[in-house]
Amino acid sequence: MQRNFGIKPFYCEICEKDFLHSSDLKFHMRTHNGEKSFSCDICGKEFSQNSNLRKHIKTHSGEKPYRCDICRKEFSRNSLLSRHIRTHTGEKPYHCDICGKDFVDNSTLKRHIRIHTGEKPFCCQICGKEFARNSHLKEHIKTHTGEKPYHCEICGKDFSQSSYLKEHIRTHTGEKPYHCEICGKEFSRNSHLKEHRKTHSREKSFLCQICDKSFSQNSHLKEHIKSHTEDILESC
């Protein structure tokens, strides 16, 4: 639609953004209707704008025309260079209005905001599980396909997710980066630290379905259940 005033007479009726040319408005409308007319001949990925396709093609060609004057690192896109420069300057111009935390780019801020809103827009088509990040969905899909691309160079064991490999490597190195603030005990996994904290808070979340006795850790519940099994065997 065209307005009769202003230096940008064409505007979007959905988000009310203004444009100087009708062609710019047409390109913009694709962001709302999901139309992707431009396709990469190499990998088949589709884009709503030709400019985005051209940027994408550089990831295949290896072309990196944008260089950092500070460390000489090269990038395929100017936006990536701008983001990188902030690692030198410490600038974090994107601000979370909920908790006040600052970020180097808008995409990282958007991912962060999902922590507050609980939004999980990425859904597994196999089991329906939802994720806040697309990278987490991709990692999850490997649990369905059986793919294990992460390889331990020490013992040869393979894993479906990089986080699993990192946890596993600690069994070789003995590293325990998770620290209890109360007693100083250290753990190789954050989940183990969380379980341990319950021994201080006396929280008992694990309930025996046979006698209703509660335990602070699942491992203690499993040990307890064995006592019922032994009693049953002795009575037979």
From TrEMBL:
C2H2-type domain residues: 10-37, 38-65, 66-93, 94-121, 122-149, 150-177, 178-205, 206-231
Presence of keyword Zinc: yes
One annotated Gene Ontology cellular component of this protein: nucleus
Primary localization: nucleus
Record-linked InterPro entries: Snail/Krueppel_Znf, Znf_C2H2_sf, Znf_C2H2_type
Keyword Isomerase tagged: no
Protein's cellular compartments: Nucleus
Any one Pfam family match given in the protein's UniProt record, by short name: zf-C2H2
Gene3D superfamilies: Classic Zinc Finger
Single Gene Ontology MF annotation: zinc ion binding
PANTHER family: CHORION TRANSCRIPTION FACTOR CF2-RELATED, ZINC FINGER PROTEIN
Protein name (record): C2H2-type domain-containing protein
Protein's organism: Octopus bimaculoides
